[in-house]
């Protein structure tokens, strides 16, 4: 049951990836319909993360007030409306509005879906189940790339955008059948509903349900009057630093510049035709999916921290190689650049892709989980917005080599951050993580 629940919630991740990735295939034909300057193109593309920034800010309070399941339903409706409106847009202003609506849905779902999966999953499988959200993002991206490749020749950008309504309706129908998060119900003090929700999620395993309820009651049950400034308390600070820092690192590693502008990057790296660049972009999406699956298999075996450190080293080295190859522009440099980009996607997919979502959903205490995840999501989308907005401007000003070099330096600094501030949470119940946070032992090895 819990696997099915995670898969339904992860459809939000698919929509996240699809609505981010679809612009890569639509960009050329869309520019022919609505001619744009680099700055206007950057804003049109960045309308999604701008809307997500607003949605993420509101999601924390709404998720605490209304519950995780109801907010997923609202997000599904917004995804449907935004997709249809984008496909029918008669002018650039309406298209930007539609993309802002899609961004609002992504911002809300991007916080609530990992939160919901984390709060419903059992401790042994929580990492892999939350990682299904990141897997769904990668599937959404590669699906958007494939749709773009198929429809690009005819210039059918409207169908590219409108096709996002299909998974949006699937999310709506699935969310209507989900149980509410037992930990949100515990936060509200309704232990009978907690038991009913857990019985569905644990397939009527009474012993497991009773033990989990005991753990929840030992930490926190009932309505808490938590406030936003409680996030700045000394005891909560390690969780805030880990979650917010990982999201800044994820975005400043350059991933969304690659996702949104992959065909342009391939063209600058020496790929001659637009169709070949689009096909290579599909390859990026496929690699992203494949190694996210690898990460899901490893995340509860090797742990979050080991994968993060190894993957961050890989992203830094591959981006440095890409920057040098493009600057060199000698024989075979285009193949080196493309290979380096594929290595970067591989390293990102096993580390910086899923781990920030997992860590965000684990490290905050229950009473502050909504506010904490909302804050982390706002930082995430704010960084995303700035990267996507500035990338075409920076590309035209200094070229791809310097831009990718900057992203590589950020990843190198991210390695130092990960070693110092990111804890290992493999196999720990959420209540044990909360106890460690309160006692000042969050960075203690998970086996201790």
Overall form: globular
Second CATH tier, the architecture:
Up-down Bundle
Give the terminus-to-terminus CA distance: 31 Å
Number of strands: 0
The secondary structure category is mainly alpha
Order of helices and strands: HHHHHHHHHHHHHHHHHHH
Mean pLDDT value? 85
CATH topology: Growth Hormone, Chain: A
- What helical percentage do the residues reach? over 70%
Q: What is Rg?
A: 21 Å
CATH homologous superfamily heading: MFS general substrate transporter like domains
User: Runs with pLDDT <50, length 5+?
Assistant: none
Number of domains: 1
Q: Specify the number of helices.
A: 19
**CATH top-level class:** Mainly Alpha
Question: β content, as a range?
Answer: under 5%
How would you summarize the topology of this molecule?
Layout: H1 2-33, H2 38-66, H3 68-88, H4 92-120, H5 126-151, H6 157-162, H7 165-175, H8 182-187, H9 191-201, H10 206-219, H11 237-252, H12 255-268, H13 274-299, H14 304-328, H15 333-350, H16 355-363, H17 369-398, H18 400-421, H19 430-439
Helix pairs in contact: 1-3, 1-4, 1-5, 1-7, 1-12, 2-3, 2-4, 2-17, 3-4, 3-7, 4-5, 4-16, 4-17, 5-13, 5-16, 9-10, 11-16, 11-17, 11-18, 12-13, 13-15, 14-15, 14-18, 17-18
Structure description:
There is one protein chain. The chain has 448 residues and is mainly α. Helix content is 79%, strand content 0%. It has one domain (2-439): MFS general substrate transporter like domains (Growth Hormone, Chain: A, Up-down Bundle). The protein contains 19 helices and no strands. The longest helix has 32 residues, at 2-33.
